[in-house]
Design brief:
The protein is α/β, with parallel strands linked by helices and 393 residues long. The protein folds into 3 domains: 209 residues, P-loop containing nucleotide triphosphate hydrolases (Rossmann fold); 80 residues, Helicase, Ruva Protein, domain 3, CATH 1.10.8; 70 residues, Arc Repressor Mutant, subunit A (Orthogonal Bundle). Helix content is 54%, strand content 9%. It contains 16 helices and 8 strands. Strands 2-3-4-1-5 form a 5-stranded parallel sheet, sandwiched between helices. Strands 6-8-7 form a 3-stranded antiparallel sheet. A hairpin with a 5-residue loop joins strand 7 and strand 8. Helix 1 runs parallel beside helix 2, helix 4 packs antiparallel against helix 5 and helix 10 crosses helix 11. It starts with 22 loop residues before the first helix and ends in a 5-residue tail after the last helix. 47% of the residues are buried. The model has no long low-confidence stretch (mean pLDDT 92).
Length: 393
Amino acid sequence: MDPRTNPFAPGAGNPPPELAGRDAIIEEASIALDRMKNGLSAKSIMLVGLRGVGKTVLLNRMHVDAEAKGIPSVMLEAPERRSLPALLVPQVRLALLKLDRMAAAGDRAKRALRALGGFVQGMKLKYQDIEFGLDLGIEPGVADTGDLSADLTSLLQAVGEAAREKRTVVVLFIDELQYVEEDELAALIAALHRCAQSQLPVTLVGAGLPQLVGQMGKAKSYAERLFEFRVIGPLESADARRAIIAPAERCDINFNDDAVEEILRQTDRYPYFLQEWGKHSWNMAARSPVQHGDVVAATDRALAELDASFFRVRLDRLTPAEKRYLRAMASLGPGPHRSGDIAEELGKKVEAVGPTRSNLIKKGMVYSPAHGDTAFTVPLFDAYIRRVMPSAD
């Protein structure tokens, strides 16, 4: 069939043609923002899950929905080796400029912009990756002490007061939160906590890998009471079927039932992989309906594309010792696995491989679903490792 009309869209954060199975969490976020906009309380929302479950897609959709309601928002990704202040400054400025242009009278937005100027001045010495220059003046004594926790709290309070004056809410949408350093994460949580206590309309909708829950609890013990943690996993069977069937039907193309079942079996119903198999099954089929054999033929192409991009980009950033650790995990199966079993597979003591495991967690390759357990953060990664590393050597 014609690849020019292929509706399936695998990619990093690409919106799928059918966002199936996520209506409840999208509505939960919408309700929370509407409540805060109307002066009511609501918890911040945290999306946690493995790679490929669609956390970034959801975050982008929620951001678009917020902007459509006229809600000023901040959208950013927390990459490794960048400070949170450096990421926040330009985006918070944009949100405040939007607030300043809103019709309601008042000068709180201008005061918050001056608070942002003080925040930059106070943070530049400590976080030298702040390259943003602001000529906004400062608000003496507000967010300018050089202490991240105190200044971020003061800044978000000023933002919240401006939002309340304009009868709206400011939302921080932050992806890949697991990469934020513990002290910076603690400062962000403390600032949001203070805003919640003061009923100021500032909230966070974040996303990260499963280890983020533990990281936030370690940073601030009350984090579990401040956030609604929502685990985003593979789709239910009916939703996974809809993710394949609905886009095709809009193009007057059908999939046989056994073809759909084969896609679900190969992908374990993970949204990213559904798009990959849908794309290649469409391209392999000569005509509608797409047959089971088309999906089987497409599997080699789908795996080859995943191996060359989705999987390989993660493996290439690892040291030889880290690769050997993952190969030992893969030899035991999908997981999770006891750390002692992995060490035994490597022929070493648990203590000897502990630093390697810690580095892999920091790099977002594995996480600990329970004490002493280790699991891959990327679905189907064990099979990939066995394909590219046939032996531990």
